[in-house]
TrEMBL record:
This is Aminoglycoside phosphotransferase domain-containing protein. InterPro entries: Aminoglycoside_PTrfase, Kinase-like_dom_sf. Residues 109-162 form the Aminoglycoside phosphotransferase domain. It comes from the Bacteria. Pfam families: APH.
Length: 248
């Protein structure tokens, strides 16, 4: 069957073949497929089903129907409905993943302490699938690795509150963002205070900037250099939020 290259891939080529998605595999792929199988068995139906590898050694996953939240994002991405659904879905994923958090397996990224769940490490609109203004899927979970719940929640807050630079005129204004952060935390259903989530977001961006620096060195891609610089600027902005007591 013909292969259709899918938009949005940042580091690798992802193609659709019929009702399946084929993407590069790695030593971490068995762990990711075990994670997906575990989530599906626990009733988290919003993730792809793994089908092993194709004849080219690529992993094969079911293709989830809907629209991926690629940039530039549509205005409806910022609805409170999606904010609440994102927090709730992340909590379900974490709870279902907990039995795998301390398993002896190979992940693409290192674990972060304290290990509580398997973090997806890249939960953001560009890795979500939407239908009729609702979240119906999570994709691209190959960056998963064990870590604390707040590590994932903080990055989701960074992308969906949002907490950093954002040029889109439809994005919520700064006066709305403390309330959106509080709503996201409540939707997740854990008693994190805003300052703790902001501190975790700053740590996450420091880690992400270093990771992106290495990708820039490995690939000579200028856009990775620019991304790393953005993450560092946003980290400074978040630290300023904490210092100004922006969060409760």
């Amino acid at each position: 069957m013909d292969e259709e290259v899918l938009a949005g891939g940042n580091s690798s080529t992802v193609v659709r073949v019929g009702d399946t998605v084929h993407r590069p595999a790695g030593p971490w792929t068995p762990a990711v497929h075990q994670l997906l199988t575990t989530l599906l068995a626990a009733g988290v139906a919003e993730v792809p089903e793994p089908f092993g590898l194709d004849e080219q050694g690529r992993e094969v996953l079911s293709c989830l129907p809907g629209i991926v939240g690629n940039y530039p994002m549509p205005s409806w991405i910022w609805s409170t409905t999606i904010l609440h659904e994102a927090g709730s879905l992340l909590r379900r994923v974490h709870d279902a993943s907990a039995p795998l958090a301390n398993s002896a397996t190979v992940w693409q990224l290192p674990a972060h302490e304290p290990v509580e769940v398997v973090c997806l490490n890249d939960v953001a609109p560009y890795n979500m699938v939407f239908q009729d203004g609702h979240i119906t899927g999570l994709i691209d979970v190959d960056m998963a690795s064990p870590g604390p719940r707040i590590w994932d929640l903080a990055y989701l807050a960074y992308r969906l509150v949002p907490l950093g630079e954002y040029a889109d005129d439809d994005a919520p204004g700064w006066d709305a963002r403390p309330g959106r952060l509080d709503a996201l935390i409540r939707s997740y259903g854990h008693e994190f205070d805003q300052a703790a989530v902001l501190r975790a977001a700053a740590d996450r961006l420091e880690d992400l900037a270093a990771f992106t620096d290495q990708r820039a060195a490995d690939t000579a891609r200028r856009d990775f250099v620019e991304h790393a610089a953005l993450y560092r600027r946003d980290r400074v902005r978040i630290l300023e939020m904490i210092a100004s007591q922006w969060a409760s």
